[in-house]
Amino acid sequence: MEKILRKRIERVTSPQKTFLRELSQNRYLSILTTPCDELGQWMGLENFSGKLQAKSIYRLAEDGFVSFEPIKDVNLRWDVCRITELGRRMLDELDRTYS
To answer: How do residues 6-58 score in pLDDT, each as one tens digit?
Structure first.
């Protein structure tokens, strides 16, 4: 298990690490998932530095560092992006390793 986690951590890019650090500071990010003209629009990207692509965020989700939680707001479904415990552990590990 530790070997798998190590491989996942090694492929996290610098912009993804910055995104995770900012997300861990309770910054807000969500994506509209209700079928409509605005489907797939992100809300809250302006709260983050850099220019992170959706593909990078989904890669972090695939590796278990972030998750999406559905919420309803005015009959629209949004999936809120949150850092997972695994993502927090990875940031702690990076801080210990590179401090």
So the answer is: 777 888 888 999 999 999 998 889 999 999 888 998 999 888 887 778 899 99
Question: CB neighbours of 50 closer than 8 A, spacing ≥ 6?
Answer: 15, 18, 19
Separation of alpha carbons 23 and 94, rounded Å = 16
CATH number at residue 75: 1.10.10
Q: Which residues pair with 30 in a beta bridge?
A: 43, 80
Amino acid identity, position 6: R
Residues 46, 83: contact at Cβ < 8 Å? no
**Backbone φ, ψ for residue 69 (5° rounding):** -120, 120
The total domain count for the chain is 1
What pTM, to 2 d.p., does this model score? Answer: 0.84
Q: How far is CA 36 from CA 39, 40, 86, in A?
A: 5, 9, 33
